[in-house]
């Protein structure tokens, strides 16, 4: 089976508008990463378009962790947009720095907090899916598959990466690289081929971004 046949099989049950929304979200997501590599503040407005669309997409496909992280992305994009604006001489580009010990402590706390929070959301997912009614509902994590557990971890990695990026820290790319690699098979498993392709592209862009930002740190 070739790639086109695989895509056709995966998307045959989707509404046309869902496919279009995913393609648009992927396009602006890739564009946002490119702007990020260039340390260009347009990373945020383009990113916001992508994350808002993915909030809906992830909700439809039951990836609550990724849905929540895209809500967080949207809020952090606004926060990062403000921070980058204040730290840019030309209001377009910013300088970057390495994470301090305090930054790593904050990042660790965010990671652990996210694991607990998203895990709790999945614990109550049967209740949420039952329109917030406990009738006949059994709470727990028994209903999760490997993709859901993976979603909890990647959500936490992305959360820290977004925080580090807003702070203009070089190490943000390390979190993106690890989480992007994990997300490729997860999205393919969930039937989101275009999104899986996006994360595949993101992996290489993140590696390139790390090298580009590292050169800037060394020069500064």
Task: Write out key terms for the chains shown.
220 residues; mainly alpha; 9 helices; 75% helix
Tally of separate helices: 9
Order of helices and strands: HHHHHHHHH
Give helix % range: over 70%
Distance between the termini: 51 Å
Structural class: mainly alpha
Give the overall average pLDDT: 84
Rg, rounded, reads: 18 Å
Shape: globular
The total count of strands amounts to 0
Beta-strand fraction estimate: under 5%
Low-confidence stretches: none
Largest sheet composition: none
Description:
This protein has helices spanning 3-11, 16-37, 43-60, 64-86, 101-123, 125-129, 146-166, 172-189, 193-219. With 220 residues, it is mainly α. It is globular. The mean pLDDT is 84.
């Amino acid at each position: 089976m070739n790639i086109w046949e695989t895509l056709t099989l995966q998307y045959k049950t989707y509404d046309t508008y869902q496919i279009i929304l995913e393609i648009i979200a992927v396009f602006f997501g890739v564009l946002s990463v490119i702007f990020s590599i260039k340390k260009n503040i347009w990373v945020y407005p383009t990113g916001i378009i992508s994350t808002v669309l993915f909030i809906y997409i992830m909700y439809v496909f039951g990836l609550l962790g990724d849905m929540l992280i895209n809500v967080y992305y949207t809020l952090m994009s606004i926060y990062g947009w403000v921070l980058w604006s204040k730290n840019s001489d030309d209001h377009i580009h910013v300088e970057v720095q390495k994470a301090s010990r305090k930054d790593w402590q904050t990042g660790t706390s965010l990671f652990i907090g996210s694991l607990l929070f998203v895990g709790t959301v999945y614990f109550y997912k049967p209740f949420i899916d039952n329109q917030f009614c406990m009738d006949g509902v059994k709470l727990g994590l028994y209903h999760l598959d490997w993709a859901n557990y993976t979603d909890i971890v990647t959500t936490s990695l992305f959360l820290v990466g977004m925080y580090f990026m807003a702070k203009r820290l070089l190490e943000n790319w390390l979190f993106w690289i690890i989480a992007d690699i994990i997300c490729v098979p997860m999205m393919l498993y969930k039937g989101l081929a275009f999104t899986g392709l996006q994360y595949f592209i993101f992996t290489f862009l993140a590696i390139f971004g790390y090298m580009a930002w590292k050169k800037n740190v060394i020069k500064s």
